[in-house]
Write a structure and sequence with these properties.
- The chain is of the alpha+beta class.
- 33% of the residues lie in helices and 31% in strands.
- It is built from one helix and eight strands; from the N terminus they run H-E-E-E-E-E-E-E-E.
- The chain has a four-stranded antiparallel β-sheet with strand order 3-2-1-5, covered by helices on one side. A four-stranded antiparallel β-sheet has the order 4-6-7-8, with helices on one face.
- The longest helix is centred in the first third of the chain and has 52 residues.
- It is rod-shaped.
Amino acid sequence: MNYRRWEESGYGLVEMLVAISIFAVVMTLAATAISHFWRVQSFSGAAAEVLMDISDAQVRAQSEVRAYKINFNTTGESYQVSRYKGPGVGDYEVVETRLLKEGVDLVTAEFFEVGAPGPELFFLPRGISSGGSLVLRSRDLGRQRSITVSELTSRVRMS
């Protein structure tokens, strides 16, 4: 009789289980890292959205030759963009109300006003602003972003 000896080819059960276990650990770590990355990007996007709304109000003030103001509600997690209608009672009309993204808090909003610092940022028709800053914080990440508006140059920047 001619018996052939089976040659080993491929992987055994133990080797496959080890490879699958390593793959599962790597995928778990990758999923955690990707989840964290998306939360950081979402917070950065929310801060950039507020920055763009401030810049947009500045551009609108210049192009429409009207004063604009942004009133930041530190307790309600929202802000309103308003445009100057003219002298008299109720001189500003609300153009839009924006909510901050979920998980983002407005920590402080201090802009220079005639009386004392407050949560309102003004842009005059020539683009000049009242100046000041606000701080946004992510609830789950603990990160903060500061948006500053220069009083002299009206430059808007985020740090």
